[in-house]
Amino acid sequence: MAAFSEDPPKYAALHWDGKMLRDVLGSDPGTTSETLAVLVSGPPAYPEGKLLGVPVIDSSTGTAQAEASMDLLEAWGLTGVITALVFDTTASNSGVHRGAAKLLEQQLDRKVFYLACRHHILEVLVGAVWENLFGKVKSPENPWFKHFKDVWTDLTTDNPTTLSIRQKWLNKKKKECKEILQEILRSEKPPRADYREMAELTLIVLGDTPPRGIHWSRPGAIHQARWIARNLYSMKMFMFAEQLEYDEETVVKLERLNLFLGLFYTPMWMSSTLAADAPANDLQFMKDMMKFKRTDPEIAQAVLQKLENHKWYLTQEVVPFALFGSRLSDKEKQDIAAKLHATEKPDSFRRGKPMFPQVTAKTTLADLVGPESHLLLDTLGIEYDWLLQPVATWPRSDDYSKALEYVSNVKVVNDIAERCRKTWLLSTWLGGRHPGKQTSLLRPSAQRFPPQPPQPQEEKAESAKVVVGEVIVFWDKARIPTQRQDKILPKSRPFMNAGRA
């Protein structure tokens, strides 16, 4: 049995993420393999995740993914510590009958939290908005973005167009958004580069100046798989629409899209990793979209329609996370606590995909509390006495502190699975191996590159450039595009109509 070098987490979340890769190292280049990155996360030793393995599986079905994940959990002796499942919201993962999440819960033989990746949910939402406005893009690369990238160096960036907002409640949202983003960008730990660019572009499109001033990054990836590119390109396209000579209809659509991105989407994305704030954020977002129907019914309805299948953080099981967040008043927290205390605990928790509630403009989080809401305290073995005390006194309770630590650390995005798989792929490539020949239990912690003699700084920089370039080429060869690259629409003036339905 594999073993941890440190103590395993007492309460861990299981992550997995599949990817079809092309074999570019083996004896039969061009063949493909379905790989599955399987990880756990949890304090104290692995708050940012521990890769258990990247097995090659027969298919991408929920059954195959669940079996491979369970094999690794058993091999590492971790079946008893899993309290949550973190996954992208694909049918193979979240299916009611044969989804990997349900099958894993069955094999674990106990109720666990279903924590769908919040980044993936938000990607689905913005994809629906784009498709509603501009139609479905059928090529691997978005032709709108390709054109913008090609002409970027010809644009003058001195005078970007900003949003003109007239409605009082939207101006209030604008003020709130600017305050949130300014605070995030001024923090000691600023977000990663592409998230920071999204926050800065949002401030600019709202007529504000980011803390470090206005900087324009060169347009990056345009592949459909790079979801955040949709936001970055859309904002720049709107701000320089006049120079791009878009027709009036296109400019109006870009303005509508940017209103949604700037006032609602970017703030949600920037706070999406916070489990404790997820219920309050999602409920407010749904209410905002209901109200936004008066301004832009098409966009609001497209978002609400998708949200009907993605109310993961408004379920009875997860709503109590809000007791440990920063979004609610003491009264709102007290209402949730009182409702939870007054609700009878079930003899056993209902397994399977959580039931999504009906939400109206008047719904409160306390309304969403039910018998399944006892799961958090039951999982952690926590007493209920502190729930009846004033909120200000909760931090004095050891039980409250225990639950706070759990909710503060549990992951609600699945980014670490993607990062770990790329790291594994790089180590596999540098080791001269290929995915199809790997064992089912890879232990990256045991793999160390031999020490190298010191290099001069200039040589280090040059070596890094070479390695990065080779890795990029390798990854592009290994990944499986959705269509052949030669089917991408060529650059031409009629590109404006290419992405429309």
Can you put this structure into words, describing what you see?
The structure is a single chain. With 501 residues, the chain is an alpha/beta fold. Among the domains are: 12-117 and 414-449, 2-Layer Sandwich (Nucleotidyltransferase, domain 5); 121-272, no CATH class. The chain has 17 helices and 6 strands. It has helices spanning 62-76, 91-94, 100-108, 118-134, 143-151, 168-186, 193-205, 227-239, 241-244, 248-270, 278-292, 297-307, 330-342, 375-380, 398-409, 415-430, 457-478, and strands at 12-22, 32-42, 46-53, 56-57, 82-87, 113-116. Strands 1, 2, 3, 4, 5 and 6 form a 6-stranded mixed beta sheet that branches. Helix 8 crosses helix 10 and helix 11 (278-292) packs antiparallel against helix 12. Mean pLDDT is 86; it is low at 436-455 and 481-501. Residues 436-463 are annotated as: Disordered.
